[in-house]
Amino acid sequence: MSKRAIRILLIVVVVLGGLFVAADRFAVNFAEGEAAEKIKTQEGLSSTPDVSIKGFPFLTQALGGKLDDVEIGIKDYDAKSDGDTIRVADLSATMHGVDFSSDYSSATADSAAGVARISYEELLKAAKAEPVKLPLGATGEVVGLSDGGNGKVKVEVEVSKGGTKLPKPVHVLSTLTVEGDSIRVHADTIPKNLEVMGISIPLPEGMVRDVTDFQEKITDLPGGIKLDTVQAAPDGVDVAVKGENVDLVS
Fold first, then answer.
1. pTM above 0.85, yes or no
2. Which of 25, 130, 43 is nearest to 88 (CA)?
3. How confident is the model over 18-43, as pLDDT tens digits?
4. Of 85, 96, 155, 240, whose CA is between 20 and 30 Å from 136?
5. What InterPro entries is this protein classified in (predicted)?
């Protein structure tokens, strides 16, 4: 074969390769858009989620009816919590081994793992209730949550007596855990006494924990994924989520 023929052949290969890549990218963009719209409709989202199909080439995966990995990002998702809702500010997850139908009407992932961010303001809703009675006519209630460092949450408790609030709120550091489908906030230690208007009030631990300790149930996450672990972050709590046989679209 002459040098000229070889050069022409190489040009043809490069052109065909470029066309294949272009076609592959067009196909994956179309598939991502279709999947995003399906998920938006199924989950009743106010905005279209981000869907990114990983792996190259996409067309060979599509022909096999199974994708290696699909990344999904959802903003402001309303999960359920004891008959009410709790806003998940940001949910990102990677779906592994996604089987799908040719018209994208159904898609199921073998497994999924991701992170859900819940603001302290949203988590605080679980702690807000009627003020809890303390000894000598005092009452206490949780009025703030923030990052306490080292994975802890700082719980701010406001104490009142006779309608008068203490000048300084009480702060305790609490540990976050996941128990089933709930995030649990549990104070590491609690003060044994409280100074109120010059009077030292003994604080029974059980009574104080009625104020400081609480939990937030979170269900109805997309595709049936579940809570795994939780840790404090600067702007809220990061909840690791996971699942198996996750229905992305059904």
1. no
2. 43
3. 444 566 676 778 888 888 888 888 78
4. 155
5. DUF2993 (IPR021373)
- AA letter at 110: D
Q: Dump pLDDT digits (tens) for 119-131.
A: 999 998 888 777 8
Helices (H), 95-222: 120-124, 205-212
Sign of CA dihedral 74, 71, 112, 186: negative
53 vs 73: CA distance, rounded Å: 12
Q: What φ, ψ does residue 24 adopt, rounded to 5°? A: -65, -45
d(CA 134, CA 162): 12
Let me know: does 248 contact 95? Beta carbons within 8 Å.
Answer: yes
Position 70: which residue type? V
- Separation CA 39–CA 74 (nearest Å): 10
